[in-house]
Amino acid sequence: MTAAMEVLGDRMVLSGDPRDGRDARRAVRERAAKVVGDAEVLDDIELMTSEAVANAVLHGSGPVRVTVATDGRRVRVEVRDGGPAGDERADPDRCRLDHGRGLAVIDALAAEWALERSPGDTRLWFVVAAPPL
């Protein structure tokens, strides 16, 4: 998160259980709704969160951490995990960042986004404008 952004709520730590995605979507939407007044933008944030968490669960290792922050004009969601899963570390050719449409969805909907990877950490973040309440 950038220094100018305030974290909304506690950082979420997910175990990788399939239900975690649903819980994360709901929690991120609730937090974003504190500063976003447009239901369609909230729908987009929820969808992008779902895709980011699914990628972390499918391709990552360790717990998945989700943080929501705002500067009042933008909302930033960050999803982190412990880096590529064991089979992807052993065979980089098997490492596919996205099985389907996840990153394409984020690319289409986010004002800004990035996927940053290292051997011990993967971080996907996206930013959307926060239409006023």
From TrEMBL:
Pfam families: HATPase_c_2 (PF13581). It comes from the Bacteria. Keywords: Kinase, Serine/threonine-protein kinase, Transferase. Residues 16-127 form the Histidine kinase/HSP90-like ATPase domain. GO terms for molecular function: protein serine/threonine kinase activity. InterPro entries: Anti-sigma-factor_SerPK, HATPase_C_sf, HATPase_dom. The keyword Kinase applies. This is Anti-sigma regulatory factor (Ser/Thr protein kinase). It comes from Actinomadura viridis. The lineage of its organism: Bacteria, Bacillati, Actinomycetota, Actinomycetes, Streptosporangiales.
